[in-house]
Amino acid sequence: MRKLAFTTALAGAAFLSLAGMAAAETVRVTVAEYSSKTGPYFEEAAKAFEEANPDADIQIEVVPWDVLLQKLTTDISGGANADLSIIGTRWLIDFVEQGIAAPLDEYMSDEFKDRFFPVFLEPSVMDGKTYGLPIAASARAMYYNKDLFEQAGIEEVPDTWEELAAAAEKISALGDDIAGFGLQGKEIETDVYFYYAFWAHGGELVEDDGTSGLDSEAAYKAAETYKSLIDSGATQPGVTSYNREDVQNLFKQGKVGMMITAPFLSNQIKEEAPDLEYGVAAIPAGPDGDRGTYGVTDSIIMFENSENKELAWKFLDMLFTTEWRAKFTEGEGFLPVNPEVAKQPAFADNADLKAFTDLLPDARFAPVIPGWEEIAAKTSDAVQKIYLGDAEPKAALDAAAEEINGILGN
Q1: CA spacing 20 to 30 A to 114: which of 17, 90, 232, 252?
Q2: Burial code of 64-77, b = ≥16 C-beta within 10 A, e = fewer?
Q3: Each residue of 298-308: pLDDT tens digit?
Q4: How many Å apart are CA 65 and CA 70, to the nearest integer?
């Protein structure tokens, strides 16, 4: 019986071996969900790649941004991560230090590198090695509702935070369900929303001496600016219950006079609220003329433990051709990271995107330092306490700065 079983097993193994020669080579891709278009785009790209490469099997997994880092952390610790994944570029330094992200330079020709604007490729270069490619690039600007401005008698778009506060109060007075200024108070980028006023008051996230900038006059004034807007009824009530998408939805419904967010809102408005009259302007300046937008790149990386790196790179190479980059960038409403894409009429003649690109000289990027996500979370926790009235600005920010200094090694 044992010999028969062994002989049968050998025959089966031979058959499987022959069948395996025709089996597809699998590349798994974890994709951050930017909009309802994200999944269909990557599935279309996977299908096109498989048609050109019959032995390839590209598996796409779409994950909401708010749980992406947690999922990646869990998958990595269990050795169950994909071959490729979109990540926030600010996470990359931790991935590199832990040996999780694979360098891509051996696959990259000079021609390939020339596909990118250097400013968007540089954030993924560490110690002379390239660990990611800029899958998405964005900045932030202020959207405003032209109809609400007209109803409130506001003729000029606010250029300073003081002017914004005055305009927001007038707009909020139009009705109980109208908010002059939409303020995000939970989940991803809650800390970033705080930085807009912080930068306007001259603040720096990390000071020259390597310590946190949250225990500074700029931070206190920024917190007071937002708390004053909340207390005067110039924001939507219960701001800590609203994430970025919630505030964007209020804006699309015509219930918010002003809010700060990314270029992709323009696409959403065109599709979901085509009758909404809106404009895009610079983020307000502080008393000394300082202002700053948040510059963002998301990267797609290859994991060091991928067993199919050559095929994974081949898929990446296709994603970064002009055709596929244009389709993704236009569909999602991002800023072009490729000169050839930027030349196309959909981008070159887009007034909304021009408003964002005009702000790029003032762009601030998240510091490329270990532990940045933990630092961002400490900041978000502090501002939430301030917004809720559970702590005074100085006390909350000083406590957060002390914890952040511990993370920074000070």
Answers
A1: 90
A2: ebeebbeebeebbe
A3: 999 999 999 99
A4: 10
